[in-house]
Write a structure and sequence with these properties.
Chain lengths: ~260, ~350
């Protein structure tokens, strides 16, 4: 599903965190957001599945369409949006009371969906295979999810997100809490998931953006205390070779404040 | 001070230290000092204080002479902390010892299974009626307080998030925490005087009085437990397309359940020994009364202790201690349950 954003401004109460972002995200591609801390990458990402409004006083102006539907339209249920647009967070957050098996099925279990055991088994296996975790955990599916390593926990969270069969997967710095080997495993996974999902990833790591993404958006602050904005949105190749904007070049080459 | 100045190029990393077991040496000396004071005719308390002061001054002083200031301060503060700990713990152990040793003699099958029906003078009887009464009254309080308390806490943490209503409720809960327990009893008594008739004392009234005391503790402890569930987990559930109320009932509550149950059980053990409100609201009764809603008084263990003690006979005092031991055992069992439940439901890390 493609995502169209038009003049989105994002607020925390009176504070305008992001201003006038417009972009068009292609279906079944990986789009990366880069930029300095505090410029609103996470904030913007969270508006794409209506997670932003979970924070009291937070709201969005402008238009965001997914597959042609305005997700902020008057009759749109945010819960339905979130079922279509999954999310993986910066810190792995498996549910501590649940086993690995139940964590993968959490989307069904928490919604009290009754499914047959055989069907549940195949969802779990499919999602864990999809997240490249099956071989590591297939012998201990009943063990707590918290018992896995950080990298495994993050892949468990990805499995949990894809088990509800979303169309879009949002990832907010999914590797920033992980070691290089786990990071490589997740990057490989992103490559594979691209054939089924539209992926949007925030990353602090320029090489990672270059390695995994098709398009890149560079966010920046005009000045301290000002809202963040989208400086440039282009195919990743172009972005890392001859960017349109001198600020982008400065940031990418490391010559930045 | 006879410190050799450490040269700038070679910072001194080691220094002279007290011999091993120095604290025992000082301890023995301090005890000897106390013994001497005792022999000289200072009372036992005075001697203990002298021994303690001897240790608290002597040990750091020695360290100051041999080692350095930091080490001396460390020893002084360590000594003070241990003293404070002992001051806190000694009365507790003493209390437990007294209750057990004085109550154990009275505790018998008869004491536990007989009421005081038509018992006069030194005839035997028991606290069966009071035990049943306490279980009924506390049970009523729990049935009222637990749902109200937990749901209030859920509102405050999950929905209120600092809005005006939530702030008002929090303020009222704080005020309720501070209500003197006898006022809760008087309130229940006055309420049922209005609703039922003058002088109404019955089990349900006692239950209402106790629930007034219990609700704020349940709210507070549940709130603390809900706050411990990270927002990360709530967001993870929302991101899976789980509505808020399901997130609360199926994820947040199960994650916090261990702590919530522990808090609830502790709040029960907090009110189970309340005397004044029950004296006022459910009254005295030498007979077994198993009906909380009949307009007749219901005896409870704390009130039983109080009545026995006010008999001021040898047997009355004995029975009061027996009742105290029973109450103590009830509270210990509840605390034990709280601990067990806490560990059973604690989120598993599985490492
Ligand atoms: N929950 C919040 N409440 C208020 N302001 C917030 C909140 N979260 C983030 N912000 C502000 O929004 C701006 C963008 O933050 P964020 O989206 O986290 O940046 P990034 O992910 O690019 O580092 C920052 O100025 C930050 O202080
Ligand atoms: Mg961020």
């Amino acid at each position: 599903m493609s995502i169209q954003v038009k003049d989105a401004s994002i607020f925390y109460g009176d504070f305008k965190a992001v201003e006038d972002v417009s972009m068009s995200i292609k279906p079944k591609s990986v789009t990366a957001f880069i930029g300095p801390s505090g410029c609103g990458k996470s904030t913007f990402l969270r508006t794409l599945n209506r997670m932003h409004e979970v924070i009291p006083g937070a709201y969005v102006e402008g238009k965001i369409q997914i597959a042609g539907q305005d997700i902020y339209g008057p009759n749109v249920d945010p819960v339905a949006v979130r079922r279509k647009v999954g999310m993986v967070f910066q810190r792995p957050n498996p549910f501590p009371t649940m086993s690995i098996y139940d964590n993968v099925l959490a989307g069904n279990k928490l919604n009290s969906k009754r499914i047959k055991k055989s069907e549940a088994d195949s969802i779990v296996e499919g999602a864990l295979r999809g997240a490249n975790l099956w071989n590591e955990v297939k012998d201990r599916l009943g063990k707590p999810g918290m018992g896995l390593s950080g990298g495994q926990q993050q892949r468990l969270c990805i499995a949990r997100a894809i088990a509800v069969q979303p169309e879009v997967l949002l990832m907010d710095e999914p590797c920033s809490a992980l070691d290089p080997i786990s990071t490589a495993a997740i990057e490989d996974l992103i490559h594979e998931l691209k054939s089924d999902y539209t992926i949007v990833i925030v990353t602090h790591n320029m090489q990672q953006a270059a390695r995994v993404s098709d398009d890149t958006g560079f966010f920046n602050l005009k000045a301290a205390g000002q809202p963040g904005h989208l400086v440039e949105f282009n195919p990743t190749k172009q972005m890392f070779t001859k960017p349109d904007n001198p600020d982008t070049e400065a940031y990418i080459s490391g010559r930045f404040g | 001070m006879t410190n050799t100045e450490p040269s700038l190029n070679e910072p001194q990393l080691s220094h002279a230290t007290l011999p091993r077991g120095a604290q025992w040496l000082v301890g023995v000396a301090a005890v000897a000092l106390g013994g001497l004071a005792l022999v000289l005719g200072v009372g036992i308390v005075g001697a203990a204080v002298i021994a303690l002061l001897g240790f608290l001054i002597g040990y750091p002083l020695w360290a100051l002479l041999v080692e350095n200031r930091r080490s001396a301060t460390d020893k002084l503060v360590t000594g003070l902390v241990w003293t404070a700990f002992a001051v806190a713990v000694i009365p507790l152990i003493w209390l437990v010892y007294t209750v057990v040793s004085r109550g154990a003699a009275t505790l018998s099958p008869e004491f536990l299974t007989y009421s005081m029906r038509s018992v006069t003078g030194d005839e035997q009887g028991g606290l069966y009626h009071a035990l049943i009464g306490t279980l009924i009254v506390t049970g009523i309080a729990a049935v009222i307080s637990i749902p109200i308390g937990i749901m209030t806490a859920i509102y405050l943490i999950e929905y209120g998030k600092g809005n005006r209503l939530a702030k008002t409720i929090t303020f009222l809960v704080d005020v309720m925490t501070g209500i003197p327990s006898i006022v809760a009893g008087l309130f229940a008594f006055a309420l049922f005087t209005l609703l039922v008739g003058p002088g109404t004392r019955f089990g349900f009234g006692g239950g209402i009085a106790l629930s007034l005391l219990m609700i704020p503790t349940v709210v507070r402890s549940t709130e603390e437990m809900l706050k411990l569930v990270p927002d990360d987990l709530r967001e993870a559930a929302y991101a899976l397309g789980v509505p808020k109320w399901r997130t609360i009932t199926k994820m947040v509550l199960p994650t916090a359940i261990g702590g919530i149950v522990t808090g609830v059980v502790l709040s029960i053990s907090r009110v189970i020994g309340e005397t004044a409100p029950l004296l006022v609201a459910s009254g005295f009764n030498p007979n077994l009364n198993t009906s909380a809603f009949d307009d007749s008084p219901m005896m409870t263990v704390p009130v039983f202790i109080y009545t026995q003690l006010s008999e001021a006979t040898a047997k009355g005092v004995e029975y009061a201690w027996g009742g105290a031991l029973v109450l103590f055992i009830l509270v210990m069992v509840l605390n034990l349950i709280a601990r067990i439940v806490g560990t059973i439901f604690a989120p598993k890390t599985g490492r």
